[in-house]
Design a protein that fits this description.
Blueprint lengths: L13 H22 L15 H11 L8 H21 L3 H18 L5 H12 L2 H6 L2 H25 L21 H11 L7 H20 L12
Helix pairs in contact: 1-2, 1-7, 2-5, 2-7, 3-4, 3-5, 3-7, 4-5
Amino acid sequence: MRKFFDPNLAGANLKDRLLACLGALLGIGLTSVISAAFVHPHGAFLLIAAPMGAAAVLVFAVPASPLAQPWPVIGGNTVSALVGVAVRMLVPAPELAAPLAVGAAILVMSLTRSLHPPAGAVALTAIVSGPAVLDAGFAFVLIPIGVNSVILTLCGVLFHRFSGHSYPHRVAGIAPAPINAALQAEDLDKALADLGETLDVSREDLDLLFGRVEYHARHRRKGSTGGFPTGRAA
């Protein structure tokens, strides 16, 4: 039965998952409480947007993900809200507006380097949430989306000062010279191009990871416990 409780993310452990639970509890709790001061007159449901639950999973469970960084959380949610409201105003048929809003939100987030998966739900929320969002208009972008996103991000920054993880994520320990001079940064770029997939990890973290793989492989071959640099220069 133990395998059912093993994390399904590389590098994760039970401690990190428990910390993620605590972080999400505190983050969503504080976001709800503080946002209460900004409740929109068009409806109490606008106190906190449902996509913030998905954003909390990223911020607190995978804080190293490029998709969980402050700009994607705040910028991605905000521009997607703008797109969603604009599409709703221009396209009255929800069955057409819904796919247009999500597709356009992905495009705008990609162009602004703010790709954030929960923001797709923000754009969709603007379409399917009933007349209250339409009545609120672009105020929906600020309240609750903008306010929620800023508070949740600040909670993430504060929480991860004590969690043992950096947030905003910073790649540390890169060595000034490569461990294996035969491997160059351009080799990593070509390998990524070969895969033809978008990976939820930064190029810098991959470079550091491969450096650690080299480090442990050398120790295994030499039977040594001495120190090696912790990464390769990008």
